[in-house]
């Protein structure tokens, strides 16, 4: 039995470390991931505040409040991460100018 468990564990480890091609995630994927991580962290923080309450079962709304605050913060961070709001670009004349707003990139293949 132990031999079968060791063989299964070795096979699982070998499959999990197969080489894969890496690529950058799409901007929507980055924002979604950051939002979900923020919501999870917010829910954990909200749940941890229940330890300081007299009646934790009456204050379970704090978990949802923490998750919603974390979701909003994660969304804001994701948007910040994918698109710098202020950046510079060079005009065809070679002058540097500030561009305010979101950068849109269209890949041509």
Task: Please describe what this structure looks like.
The protein is mostly helical and 109 residues long. The protein has a domain at 26-84. The protein has 3 helices and 2 strands. A two-stranded antiparallel sheet has the order 1-2. β1 and β2 (96-100) form a beta hairpin. α2 (27-48) packs antiparallel against α3. The relative contact order is 0.12. The model has no long low-confidence stretch (mean pLDDT 81).
Write the layout of secondary structure elements.
Elements: H1 2-16, H2 27-48, H3 61-82, E1 86-90, E2 96-100
Antiparallel strand pairs: 1-2
Short overview:
The chain is mainly α.
Give short descriptive properties of this protein.
about 110 residues; mainly alpha; two-stranded antiparallel ribbon; 3 helices
């Amino acid at each position: 039995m132990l031999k079968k468990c060791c063989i299964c564990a070795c096979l699982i480890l070998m499959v999990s470390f197969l080489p894969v091609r890496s690529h950058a995630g799409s901007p929507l994927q980055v924002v979604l991931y950051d939002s979900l991580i923020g919501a999870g962290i917010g829910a954990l923080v909200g749940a941890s505040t229940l330890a300081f309450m007299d009646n934790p079962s009456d204050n379970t709304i704090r978990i949802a409040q923490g998750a919603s605050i974390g979701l909003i913060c994660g969304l804001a961070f994701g948007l910040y991460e994918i698109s710098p709001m202020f950046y510079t670009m060079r005009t065809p004349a070679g002058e540097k100018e500030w561009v305010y707003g979101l950068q849109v990139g269209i890949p041509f293949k």
